[in-house]
Amino acid sequence: MMSEAILFEHIGEIDSTNAELSRRIAAQTLAFAPVCLSADIQTSGRGRRGRSWLNTDGAIMMSLACDTAGIASENLPLISIAAALGIHDAISKLLAHTAVKWPNDVVCTDQGYLEKLCGILCELVFAPSGAAFAVIGIGINANCETLPKMLMMPAASLRIKLGKSVDTEALKRQIASAVLDRLSLLRCDPQTLVCEYSRRCATLGNSVAATDLTGKTVCEGTARRILSDGRLVIETENGEIIVDAADVSIRTKLCSE
Fold first, then answer.
1. 69 Cβ contact list (under 8 Å, min separation 6)
2. Which DSSP symbol is given to 74?
3. Are the C-beta atoms of residues 86 and 15 closer than 8 Å to each other?
4. Cβ-proximal residues to 110 (8 Å cutoff; 6+ apart), any chain
5. In this predicted structure, what is the pLDDT of residue 142?
């Protein structure tokens, strides 16, 4: 599938690539879409659920802004799943034993435990005209030689796993193109998108715990399936529970490894 042309920009230092693209959309100065903006340093980078994104030497920090025209309103929550699947498409060409973790992390699974390679923050931004844009923030541990230890889950980098550096410029282009391809699939066949995401999702079939923003455990059980709207079904001792915004951690070694 061929993606539309993408404008690539790079900035040395910025508060947040997501914030910058959001400002351009609000000010109607986003003259070209889709656009991919990357930076060496983010002074106020953000992750999911209001968390900060840490600057790490060798990491790719980028955001992709694209029009959501053609995506049904009920399928807008699936943009993050499409983004994760697209990034996985690109990274898996470099590194075997990769998967997605619900809802939108890309991870390495080669030791039977999850190590985070990429985090994603998707935001829906409206222009004054009413047009809706997806702004997809992407942070990838690409050529990082060391990684912070105090993280929510263990992390890995492509350089550490491959034993060599990767071409970050080429990888940015491959990722942006792959994400747009998956968004095209979302427009025409959202259920196939969910099925393909499910096949690559390391969360499913494993013992998990879901926690809320305060860190309180919402439920524990086995992750069973992903619904058509992207929510996760967890089978507990008291029946099935559907979660849509929780942090979900895998508690044991992967059952598939």
1. 131
2. G
3. no
4. 96, 97, 161
5. 96
User: Can you tell me the distance from the alpha carbon of 48 to that of 241, in angstroms, rounded to the nearest whole number?
Assistant: 22
Q: For residues 86 and 140, what is the distance between their CA atoms, to the nearest angstrom? A: 13
The token duo for 78 is: 């699936």
Confidence of residue 53 (pLDDT cuts 50, 70, 90): low
Is the pLDDT reported for residue 257 higher than 50?
Answer: no
CA-closest candidate to residue 135, choices 182, 190, 66: 66
Instruction: Give the Å distances, CA to CA, from 191 to 91, 93, 115, 165, 227.
Output: 23, 24, 28, 36, 9
- For residue 77, say if its preceding peptide bond is cis, omega within 30 degrees of 0: no
- Range with the poorest average pLDDT among 123-132, 151-160, 179-188: 151-160
Using a 10 angstrom Cβ sphere, with 0-12 exposed, 13-18 middle and 19 or more buried, the burial of residue 127 is middle
Which domains are seen in the chain, by residue range?
Answer: 7-197 (3.30.930.10), 207-250 (2.30.30.100)
Tell me: pLDDT of 3 over 90: no
Q: For residue 194, what are its two tokens?
A: 């969910």
